[in-house]
Write a structure and sequence with these properties.
- The protein has 996 residues and is α+β, with helices and mostly antiparallel strands.
- It has eight domains: 91 residues, Ubiquitin-like (UB roll); 78 residues, Ubiquitin-like (UB roll), CATH 3.10.20; 82 residues, Ubiquitin-like (UB roll) (Roll), CATH 3.10.20.310; 73 residues, membrane protein fhac (Ubiquitin-like (UB roll)); 84 residues, membrane protein fhac (Ubiquitin-like (UB roll), Roll), CATH 3.10.20.310; 76 residues, Ubiquitin-like (UB roll); 73 residues, Roll (Ubiquitin-like (UB roll)), CATH 3.10.20.310; 398 residues, Beta Barrel (Porin).
- The strands form nine sheets. A 16-stranded antiparallel sheet has the order 24-25-26-27-28-29-30-31-32-33-34-35-36-37-38-41, with no helix packed on it. Strands 1-3-4-2 form a four-stranded mixed sheet, covered by helices on one side. Strands 8, 9, 10 and 11 form a four-stranded mixed sheet that branches.
- Strand 25 and strand 26 form a beta hairpin.
- Helix 1 crosses helix 3 and helix 6 packs across helix 7.
Length: 996
């Protein structure tokens, strides 16, 4: 047999059969593909029917070509037949289809537009088939975007790279932006009516006063047009229309002249008659102001809104109508005629007929509410009534009560008192419909028990359409998660023989299951591939799950080193069961610099070189500056290095930290190394200086439980002591501390910023000793428990208890166990976030003049706080709405103190003498919370019921030094004046966030 090769053209039917007539019926010696590996082996076997050893038929060749094209992975296919001694070799010669693997923007880009906006404007979608003409269309779209942002001289150069691994095309656009154009005087067409300066000020295209034209951006052009329209509408021209016709670019002058068309329209005046209504209320409830249009539908909506508004304020009989006056003298008047009627007060709300649900379950879903502290007239309107009836009915229907009926009775002049109203919700539940039988058909590939585990419409359970919809979502979610993208679900039901019983049937069409052929990554430059591989949970052969795909995308984002992670299925519409999953990364900027400035206005108590007369603190001002430099993705491993500094008159801090997230390949475990220098001068008697090196392992055990294990080795010392020689020398000398601590936090609050239910438990346990190289030995425990209870719909009871104990042991010679604990390591309390009976850190023992070096200066007290080795604080708050939805009121009671030691802890109410600080101090007060996006802003006023008194020295440090037995008696007497002082009854606090 010769070696001639016959080429079979791409034809079907008789045309193809004629070309292979000489090979028709010939035994197939082999089936080959050039190039090989385009399709997965399993997809290839199912796509074409030609088998080695079987006779060749033209019909089979045509079917094979159709099936291969349907896979979407080929641009062109031809077939060659080569005769051999064993029959004929059939060879499919193909041209593979390419798919978009990534789209990148490079070059020095001024913002706007950013790289993301340009990429989006290219209209190139990850994973779809690539065509050469798509690049030109992308360039055209991005060029339009650049020009709309004033970059008329920009140029874009594409670069295309191909990878045969998954037939991917990587497209990079290099952008040279050029200089941004500026605006010039716009052309206004139509009725202008406003002065030129007003128009320019409204558009914002020219800087005021200096009259320099701004640079052109798309957002600035758009907002300028919108602001100009708003300027007309502020003049009551609600029908004004301002449109941008075109922008005219002068290349020689690099200027852009906007052409704007203005239709001012008449003035529109909306008023209320027969009832006083503020303009603010009219703007809120009449939608013509928001929609900037006047038509009947909007006026009718405003009528309903105003009627609901007055009804909700107690005018249950309020009637509202409107009339439109014909335009006259460039003015169109719209009048809302309001008849308020008698004002009522909803004093009682009851629910009857309910058996399946209790009253609280129903009431918490209702808008109607009786009068309360924050609702002086209660809340009722016809709109609220209709909404509540529908909500209650939906609740019952979702639980099988298909025939439920809701009726509302309004009893006016309730119990004979004019203006009082009682509302009764009458519920006729009817019979509960139950599922008698569930039939599922069509499940062949999926495990039935696993799929139906989340189904609720099973025998004996309540029947409702809501349950059917929930079952549909649960079943299809399982199928989609396990790689069945074409799965369908159909539900049907019919009544069974028994009354109020139904038979439910589900029909499922599963479709073909799809699998992961491979996971392809692109865009990694500095990031090690090993970091990505550790977080790659999808593997070849796994079901192609969109849920797992997006979960893996989230894991990549959680690494904190990528600015963008795009994911897609390559060739999503192709008829194959094995598909590539694509991930395209854009690495985040590795360096981040942040600078902050601020100030603190608070009651400070730091010692002064001029006076010791205010140990309880005085109001002061402390400016503050901070800087942070962060290096992300260090060494490409996802690690982070942060250098942070703070400088103010009361705090000087510098820290260097190295964070290793996902330690030991766990996304729940982080390791952090830190170097810290901190010199803090606050209300304490001294400045605390800390030089520390530490390592901390953080482990998240569950959603609510986190543990942190930390070893710190630090040097602590005190400086700026009131009078250094007044303290025992060992208290002033630097001390080396080696301490191992463990902190456990269980957080079950519903909202960490502003909780209303749940609890928070924490335990901080540490031990320092010579076995860790520490010069002082002590154990330390700080326990905290906080709970939050919703007493009613509007009342929240929050409470917190803190207990701290320091137990010293092996004290150095010359010091008692209590004195051996360095001052910076002791407990301090007081302030907005702990014990509001005191200013910041002002609670606990104070200098009484006892800690004096023998033979030194006279034993004169200064009254400054020294901290203690035991702490107890209990806070209770009753939180309630005060004004509207954003302002909350709080009544609180704080009690506790810092004690010398655990054995000195006492719940006594009164102070025995000015040297006794080991008793419990109480404070009661009132606070206001204003809700903001970053948490509540709060202001608290506390009245301390039993503040401590103490003896202090009302003079300067130099004068205290002169109070010495070695000085002449007259000199010592003149400077040794002790004064009785106290911490004061009233304390004021202003801060952000709840107290606890």
């Amino acid at each position: 047999m010769g070696c001639a090769v016959a080429v079979l053209a791409l034809a079907v039917g008789s045309g193809l059969a004629a070309q292979v007539a000489s090979f028709e019926g010939t035994r197939i010696a082999d089936v080959q593909y050039s190039p090989a590996g385009i399709l997965d082996t399993a997809d290839l076997a199912s796509a074409q029917p030609l088998k080695k050893g079987e006779p060749l038929r033209a019909r089979d060749v045509a079917d094979a070509i159709d099936a291969l094209f349907a896979t979407g992975r080929f641009q062109d296919i031809s077939v060659e037949a080569e005769p051999t001694s064993e029959g004929v070799i059939v060879r499919f010669v193909t041209q593979p289809q390419w798919f978009i693997g990534s789209v990148n923007i490079e070059g020095k880009l001024p913002s706007p537009p950013g790289g993301g906006e340009l990429r989006s404007n290219s209209r190139l979608t990850l994973g779809v088939a690539f065509r050469e003409e798509d690049v030109n269309q992308a360039i055209a779209g991005m060029t339009r975007l650049l020009k709309s942002n004033g970059l008329y001289d920009a140029s874009i150069e594409p670069r295309i790279e191909r990878s045969g691994d998954a037939q991917e095309v990587f497209i990079t656009f290099h952008v040279k932006a050029g200089k941004r154009a500026k605006y010039e005087m716009p052309e206004i067409h139509g009725g202008q009516l406003l002065p030129e300066n007003t128009i320019l000020r409204a558009t914002g295209w020219r800087l005021p006063i200096i009259h320099w034209w701004r640079q052109v951006t798309s957002a600035r052009t758009r907002s300028g047009v919108q602001h100009l329209q708003a300027a007309y509408q502020k003049k009551d021209r609600l029908l004004a229309r301002v449109e941008l016709q075109q922008t005219e670019y002068d290349a020689a002058r690099h200027r852009v002249r906007p052409h704007v068309d203005v239709t001012p329209g008449p003035k529109v005046k909306v008023t209320a008659i027969e009832a006083k209504v503020s303009k603010r209320v009219l703007k809120r409830y009449v939608p013509v102001f928001e929609e900037r249009d006047v038509d009947t539908d909007l006026l009718v909506e405003g009528k309903r809104n105003l009627q609901d508004y007055f009804q909700s304020r107690g005018y249950y009989d309020a009637l509202v109508d409107f009339r439109v006056q014909p335009p006259q003298d460039d003015l169109e008047t719209i009048q809302y005629v309001i008849s308020k009627g008698q004002r009522f007060k909803l004093v009682h709300l009851s629910i009857t007929g309910n058996k399946y649900f209790d009253a609280n379950t129903i009431r918490e879903r209702m808008f109607i509410a009786p009068a309360a502290f924050n609702l002086r007239r209660g809340r009722y309107s016809e709109a609220f009534r209709r909404k509540d009836e529908a909500t209650i009915a939906d609740l019952y229907k979702a639980n099988g009560f298909r025939d439920v009926a809701i009726a509302t009775e309004v009893d006016r002049d309730y119990r004979g008192k004019a203006g009082d109203v009682a509302v009764t919700i009458n519920i006729t539940e009817g019979r509960q419909w139950l599922v008698d039988k569930l039939t599922v058909e069509g499940m062949a590939q999926a495990p039935k028990r696993e799929v139906l585990a989340g189904v609720t419409s099973i025998e004996g359970q309540p029947f409702s359409e809501v349950s059917l919809a929930a079952d549909r979502d649960a079943v299809l979610t399982w199928y989609y998660k396990h790689g069945f993208p074409d799965a369908t679900f159909k539900a049907a039901w019919r009544q069974s023989g028994a009354p109020d019983r139904v038979e439910v049937s589900y029909t499922i069409v599963e479709g073909k299951q799809q699998f992961v052929r491979g996971v392809m990554m692109s865009g990694l430059h500095t990031t090690h591939r090993s970091l990505v591989d550790k977080n790659t949970t999808l593997k070849p052969g796994d079901p192609l799950s969109p849920v797992d795909e997006t979960a893996m995308q989230k894991q990549f984002y959680d690494l904190g080193v990528f600015a963008r992670v795009d994911t897609a299925i390559e060739n999503p519409a192709g008829d194959t069961q094995h598909k590539y999953v694509l991930y395209d990364f854009e690495e985040a900027n590795r360096y981040t610099l942040s600078v902050g400035v601020g100030a603190q206005v608070a009651r400070f108590g730091q010692p002064s070189a001029y006076s010791l007369g205010s140990p309880a603190g005085t109001t002061g001002f402390s400016p503050e500056g901070s800087i942070s430099i962060t290096r992300l993705n260090f060494l490409g491993l996802g690690h982070t290095i942060t250098l942070h500094g703070v400088y103010s008159t009361i705090d000087k801090l510098a820290s260097l930290s190295y964070q290793q997230p996902h330690f030991w390949n766990s996304d729940r475990r982080n390791l952090t190394y830190a170097l810290v220098y901190d010199n803090e001068l606050d209300v304490r008697t001294f400045a605390s200086r800390r030089e520390e090196v530490s390592v901390q392992l953080s482990q998240k055990y569950s959603k609510s439980l986190t543990a942190m294990f930390r070893f710190a080795y630090r040097g602590v010392s005190v400086s700026d002591v009131v009078i250094p020689v007044l303290l025992i020398p060992q208290l002033v000398q630097p001390v080396r501390i080696g301490i191992f601590s463990a902190n456990f936090v269980q957080d079950r609050r519903n909202n960490a910023v502003n909780p209303s239910r749940g609890m928070l438990n924490s335990a901080d346990v540490g031990i320092a000793g010579s076995f860790f190289g520490s010069q002082r030995s002590f154990g330390r425990v700080l326990l905290r428990n906080a709970t939050y209870y919703r007493l009613t719909k509007n009342l929240i009871l929050a409470r917190q208890t803190q207990l701290g104990i320091i137990v010293p042991f092996t004290a150095p010679t010359g010091l008692t166990d209590q004195e051996s604990v360095p001052l910076p390591e002791r407990f301090f309390a007081g302030g907005a976030d702990s014990l509001r009976a005191f200013a910041f850190n002002e609670a606990g023992p104070r200098d009484t003049g006892a800690a004096i070096v023998p033979g030194g200066p006279s034993s004169r007290p200064t009254g400054f706080p020294l901290g203690g080795n035991a702490l107890f604080v209990n806070n209770v708050e009753l939180r309630f709405p005060l004004l509207g939805e954003n302002i909350q009121g709080v009544f609180f009671h704080d009690m506790g103190n810092v004690f010398t030691s655990l054995s000195d802890m006492s719940f006594r109410f009164s102070q025995r003498n000015p040297q006794d600080f080991n008793y419990t101090v109480h404070a009661a007060g009132f606070g206001v919370r204003y809700r903001t996006p970053v948490g509540p802003v709060r202001f608290d006023v506390a009245y301390t019921i039993n503040p401590p008194s103490f003896d202090g020295f009302n003079g300067t440090p130099q004068q205290l030094l002169l109070c010495n037995p070695n000085n002449p008696a007259s000199l010592a007497q003149s400077y040794c004046q002790v004064t009785r002082q106290n911490t004061g009854h009233f304390q004021y606090f202003f801060s952000i966030g709840q107290t606890f």
